Amino acid sequence: MIGPDCKDCPVCQEEVAKTPAEGGEVPIKLHCGHMIGRDCLQTWLKSWHIDREKENPTCPLCRAQLPLLYKDIESMPWDKQLELLPSQVQLIAREWVAYARSDEALDREVDAFLLAAREEQIDGCYGVELGHMLAKLETRRLAFVQYQKTLQAVLEGMQAG
């Protein structure tokens, strides 16, 4: 197991890193408590799915079931996908998704603007309305950046502790 005094992935023996930029394996904590380098875990999971398509994969060290994998996660409803995330991440992820879905009026406004701009001369779509819409979109973009930073901080805290 990768602990505070362990500096190598238990599978490949490569030095672990806190971030991908540092070079080395980024440790991933499994439900069983073992920490495995991300690249080694991905290799293990790919080979598992080729050999045993119908079973959930296991930890490469203790063979405990990994309960988080589904054949086609993208076909699952959002709420079920969010349940697969570690509990520390679920709250911020739910807030992020709720915020992303919260402004249907702005979505309709952008759609209508783009459809109208397609039908008119391109010169006709620049003006005050575009400025207001871009300001609203920038506000939302900045909120998403903040959610991303918060989520990154939570993930870094999970990796460290």
TrEMBL record:
InterPro entries: Znf-RING_euk, Znf_RING, Znf_RING/FYVE/PHD. Residues 9-63 form the RING-type domain. Gene3D superfamilies: Zinc/RING finger domain, C3HC4 (zinc finger). Keywords: Metal-binding, Zinc, Zinc-finger. PROSITE patterns: ZF_RING_2 (PS50089). Coiled coil: none annotated. The keyword Zinc applies. One of its GO terms (molecular function) is zinc ion binding. The keyword Zinc applies. It comes from the Eukaryota. Pfam families: zf-RING_UBOX. This is RING-type domain-containing protein. The lineage of its organism: Eukaryota, Fungi, Dikarya, Ascomycota, Pezizomycotina.
